[in-house]
Each structure stands twice: as structure tokens, then as C-alpha cells.
Design goal:
Two copies of one chain form a homodimer. With 382 residues, chain A is an alpha+beta fold. The first copy, chain A, is 34% helix and 29% strand. In chain A, strand 10 and strand 11 form a beta hairpin. In chain A, helix 2 packs parallel to helix 3 and helix 5 packs parallel to helix 6. Chain A is globular and about 70 Å long. The interface between A and B is large, with 65 and 65 residues.
Chain lengths: 382, 382
């Protein structure tokens, strides 16, 4: 069990949004926390995204409330006023202003909240809360995740604890799936924001399960300050480790996934090219199905590199590896083929594409494409 | 059975590239034909693409040779010299210069051609050929297609006959899968090129089975001139109809596909925005699996529109339809839901997204995502 750092308190419960599993998480800070966050850029973002962006702009927050099983997306004016009302109800519960609340929502699109149930529940909810368990928070925000995701790290006297969800409809872009990171380190919101965005760029924004960037992604980090100031570079390393762990956990739990795929692109023109190529490989249905079939089909990796189209990528300068095994241009011997098939049966497979252009690198995270993904998403009923 | 137009003659046969199905197609023009073509922009294009681009630049060709079951991609210097040698052998067989030959190749990546077999076969092959059947040509170029694709149209005294293949590793970009269109209409290569590119833009380049743009795509059109001059606008209409038919046939035969999906985007800022949004919808794994599951999940269509990120797309101005049924913003009644599920069980489903911005439109073609696609591509062994 992982407890949240000093200064945070948790409530989880079942409102009855859709079923009888926990569907509400409210995390409070004893006193206002420095806060930073990134959000989906989807043009179909839910109203909670707008509300949260406005509220986060102050750099300070008192509570994060997340509803699961309903994203409150494409719900028009009614959805908008419902989101505002929930923000006010949560604020009243935790003795804060509405502008000090961050609101997350994930689940079905196009369905109104069951407001009667939500009003009843929140009007009876009392603070302060006494919950401390991150696993309970992570479980309350899940939709199709098969298990809760938690990660933690220490930095001097401070700890960082994060929870995340999101394994389908996932390719965050300048935003993330829902991740809430907490720390009792003391750091002002501007520094927190700069550090967090840098980390998000290499973790949550490097993740793709199915290219379908969600309407509801958000990642936020709150710092209560109760453990005092810590060395900033050490803080950044620890926060990066927590975010990377959550990213890898999300990729590995991709809907229907059996294999975590890590794609390293090296010797690119620059990081931007490396990122595009890494995403092209990790997003390719043909690469993903090959990994599922334990097929060392490097030709599909070559195809994925090739479709990026950049004129400075030359076939003769490219090298491709599965794990430590080079598969192109050196031909694969029959003996090596057997080793490769064994390697591809692992829970984690690393594909490296060296472009032979410059010094740019990037790592992307994803998963194989299986019948499971198709069944989960074809059998889901609106 | 569909015969090629006047001025074209066909040979098909089995060289033994991989198995005993036909794997060679050679189509000759009695005298040089005007020719135009588009090719993959993949950075991992096979050497035949470079050779064909150079040869097509003259605007005139004598024969098209296509090898199936081996793409000759990522085969290095050996692959390059093999492609040149095959071009010379075909030229000798049909009494032409190597520069008058267009060479296509499709199939496995990273394996050298069995040159002994190819040399033996071509050295014994004699022209002129006597074949006329387009279906035989279409069958000889297939890899994972389940059936040959042929389309034809008349224009005055002339006919247009096209064959195509390509149902996996398909999202042509400024190029196409392998399509060979022939006509006995008389038209010079510059006019042919301009018309063909305009048509390709709305047909083959509007097709996506799985976003994995191939290393080997090409579409070419040859005009023997033997039927004389025809009205150019009528010629363009007829050629467009042939290419559209082939595009729809390819989409419907997508690996594992059970449903052809047609996505119409209307009222976009311009055609470019309409194209991006149409592709985002037709490429979304979540939209594709929903169609497979007959689930009128318009929320996923909204998500796909949303991920395009353009600031001028506003949720409240968007409308979404499945067939003629509006599903957003007007809520779907229970009765309508039943009608929708029936509609989604058809062989062809049309999704319309009206963006409410301007006058731009675009139509994209694709297919559902099924367990069949996963099995075909996970069970394929290198």
C-alpha cells in the first residue's frame, strides 16, 4: 500500500454513475497546493477541461475531483452547467472556492451525468477526509484499466506519489490521460509547471495505445510543501521516474495488450524527427500485430520508418534492432531467428531504429494489437 | 470477363517467386503508349520505384511488368541490380529499350528475388502476347487480396479498363497501391498526367485500410491511342469512375474487413481540413472497431474529429450522421437506435461529419477493424 504524501487526504466512493464500482475520487490538500497541469487539446474536450484550465491558471488548488464512468463530453449546455454545479458542490464540501477545484471526468461520451445521484452524494459528503491510499484513488478513476496504476519515489525528506488511468483512446498530445501526481516537496507553481511540462513531453506524451487521443486527458501535479524545499534537479529526476513508471504501466495495460513495446529512435536529425518516427513505429498496426504474433518482421518497422517521408532518411544508413539483436541491414541467420522469436515472447519488447542522420533521440511507449483490443472495442455497446 | 482496350496484350504466369500461383504480369502496348503515374514517397521504397519514375519521365512506355509475392524492398545493392536486370530482360522479351519498361513489385520485404528462376522464365518468354483478360492480370498481381479487382468504363468509342491490388499496408500518400489503368483513348502524356493526378488525389489517395503506407505503391495509366481522340471532360469522368470503383473495391477487401466505410466531411474550412478530418475518422481504431461491432458509437467519431485540433472546429457547430440518420447533436431515440444497428450491419456504412466552418469537402474510404486483420497480420510469418 502506498500512502499519499503529507498534506493530502482522500475520499473515494460509489455515486452510481453507471454501476456499483467506485466512481468518485476527491483528493484534498490541507492548505492550498502549488499546482501545474496539462490538458487535452481535443476540439471535443469536455466542459470540465475548460473549467480546470481556468482554475489551474492561478497556480494554486485545494482539491482534485475525478468522476469515472462518464466523461461528460458532447453534452452541450446541460453538460456545461452540470460540470459547474459539481465544481461548486465539491468546493462547498471541502470548504474552498470553486476556482480552487480541478475537475476530471472519464468514461462514456454523449451521456448526461445522473445529477440527482451526484447532488445527493455530495450534499452528504463531509470533510476533512481520512483516506491515504493511492491504490484506492487509482482504482476509483479506472474505466477499462485492468488494474490500478500507482508509482512513487523519494527525494530527500519528500515523497512523490502518482496515480494514473487510461488504456484505450490513448495518444496524448500536449496533454495526457488522467494522471494525478502529488508531492509534499515545497516548490512554487511556475517551477513546478516548467519541470512538469518537460517531463510530460517525454512520458505521457510519448505514449500511444491506439492513436485515438482522448477528449478528456489531463495530468496534474500538486505540491503541498509540507516536507520543505528539496534540490530541484533531484526533484525533477524523481518526478520523471514516477511519470515514466506510470507511462509504462499504462502502455503495458493497453486494451487487449500482452506486450509492452518500447521504441527507441536514435541518430535522428533532431528530437522532433525522432519523435515522429518513434510514434510511426509504435502506432503501426502492422508492427503491433507482428509483435503480437512474435514475428520478427523488421520489414514492417522499415515500412513505418519509410512512411515518415523525410528526405534526409536514407535506407542504406538505417539500422534496426529487436532488443540487442540487429535485424537490418545484417541479414538474420536461422539461429538468430529462433532467439528473436523467444525474445518477442517477452512481456516487454524494445525496437531500436537508428536513422544515421544526426544526434536526435526519442523513446515512445505502446503495446501490441490483439484480438482482445478488437473484442473490447467492438463489443462495447453505446 | 473484361478485355483490355485495343492496343494492349497480356502475359501472366508462375515464375515460382514464392509458390505456384501466378506471380508475373507483363502488359505490353502495341506501340508506345502515353503514360503517367504516381509512386510511393516512402523512404524505404524498392529500387523498382526509382527505375519506374525515371522511365516514366519520358511520358512514353512500351510495357508494364509486375512481380508479386516479393516486393524487393530493403534488399540493398543486390536488389538494385536485380531490378535493373529484370527490366533489361523484360525489354528484350518485348523488343523495347529498358527505359520503356515500368516495373512493379509487391509482397514480402527483405528477401532477394530468386533470380535463377526469373532469368530462366524470362529468357524463354516470347512476345507478342495473346492475353486480353483483365481479371487474369488482376489475379497475377494479388498478395493478400481475396479476389481480383477490375473496373471499366466507356467513353465514346474508347474504353478504360483498370486492375488493382492492395488490401493491407495501405494508406497511399501521393502514391497508390498497385493499380494499372489502360485505355485506347488518344491523349498526350502531359494532359494524361494532370488528369490522373487530380483523380488519384480523390480516389487512391483517399483510401486507408490501416495507415501503413506501403514501400511499393504505384498507380499508372497507359493510353494506346488506338480508339482516337475523345472529349477530355468525358474522358476524365470515365477515368474517375474506374479509379473510384477500384478504390472502393480495395477498401471493401481490406484485410479482415467485413464493412466498407465511406467518410464524408462537409462544411470544412477547406478541402485540406476536410481531408485530415476524414482520414482521422476512417483511420481511428475505435471508430473501425465500433463499426465492426455494429455499435452506433458517434462519441468515437466526435473524438476523432476532436483530435484534429484545429481551432476553427467548434463542438456546437458540428453534426454527425450514420447514413441519413443524425446522431449528434440531436440525441438518438431508442427506436432510432434499432434502425442504426440495422444500418451498421450493411456491407457499406457512410459516416458524415459536417464541421459547420466553410465549404470544404472530402470523402475518404476505409474499412472496419476486425479480429481477422489481427489474425492475418499476427499469424503471418517472416
Amino acid at each position: 500500500m502506498t500512502n499519499f504524501p503529507k498534506g493530502f487526504a482522500l475520499h473515494v466512493g460509489n455515486v452510481g454513475i453507471k454501476d456499483n464500482t467506485n466512481d468518485l475520487m476527491v483528493l484534498t490538500a490541507d492548505s492550498n497546493s502549488a499546482v501545474a497541469g496539462v490538458f487535452t487539446q481535443s476540439r471535443f474536450a469536455g466542459p470540465n477541461i475548460e473549467i480546470s484550465k481556468q482554475n489551474i491558471a492561478t497556480g494554486s488548488a485545494k482539491a482534485v475531483a475525478i468522476i469515472s464512468k462518464n466523461a461528460n463530453v458532447a453534452t452541450g449546455e446541460t453538460g456545461r452547467s452540470n460540470a459547474e454545479e459539481i465544481t461548486e458542490l465539491v468546493a462547498a464540501t471541502v470548504n474552498a472556492e470553486p476556482s480552487e477545484i480541478i475537475l476530471g471526468s472519464t468514461g462514456v461520451i454523449g451521456v448526461q451525468y445522473p445529477m440527482d445521484r451526484i447532488r445527493d452524494y455530495l450534499s452528504q459528503l463531509k470533510s476533512p477526509f481520512s483516506g491515504r491510499e493511492a491504490e484506492a484513488a487509482a482504482a476509483a478513476i479506472m474505466t477499462t484499466d485492468t488494474h490500478p496504476k500507482v508509482a512513487s519515489a523519494s527525494v530527500g525528506p519528500a515523497t512523490i506519489v502518482g496515480v494514473a488511468k487510461g488504456v484505450g483512446m490513448i495518444e496524448p498530445n500536449m496533454a495526457t490521460m488522467i494522471a494525478v501526481i502529488t508531492t509534499d516537496a515545497e516548490i512554487n507553481s511556475d517551477r513546478l509547471d516548467e519541470i512538469f511540462r518537460r517531463i510530460v513531453d517525454k512520458t505521457f506524451n510519448a505514449l500511444s495505445v491506439d492513436t485515438d487521443t482522448s477528449t478528456s486527458d489531463m495530468a496534474i501535479v500538486l505540491a503541498s510543501g509540507q516536507a520543505g524545499v528539496v534540490a530541484e534537479d533531484q526533484f525533477e529526476s524523481a518526478l520523471a521516474a514516477v511519470c515514466l513508471s506510470l507511462t509504462r504501466q499504462l502502455a503495458a495495460d493497453g486494451e487487449g495488450a500482452e506486450t509492452l513495446i518500447v521504441v527507441d529512435v536514435t541518430s535522428a536529425r533532431d528530437e522532433e524527427q525522432a519523435r515522429r518516427v518513434a510514434k510511426a513505429i509504435v502506432n503501426s498496426p502492422l508492427v503491433k500485430t507482428a509483435i503480437h504474433g512474435r514475428d520478427p518482421n523488421w520489414g514492417r518497422v522499415a515500412m513505418a520508418i519509410g512512411k515518415c517521408g523525410d528526405a534526409d532518411i536514407n535506407q542504406q544508413d538505417v539500422a534496426i534492432y529487436f532488443g540487442d539483436h540487429e535485424v537490418y541491414p545484417t541479414p538474420v541467420s536461422p539461429q538468430k531467428l529462433t532467439e528473436l522469436e523467444t525474445y518477442l515472447g517477452s512481456d516487454e519488447v524494445r525496437i531500436t531504429a537508428d536513422l544515421g542522420v544526426g544526434n536526435g533521440t526519442f523513446t515512445a511507449y505502446g503495446c501490441d494489437l490483439t484480438d482482445g483490443y478488437v473484442r473490447i472495442n467492438a463489443d462495447y455497446t453505446t
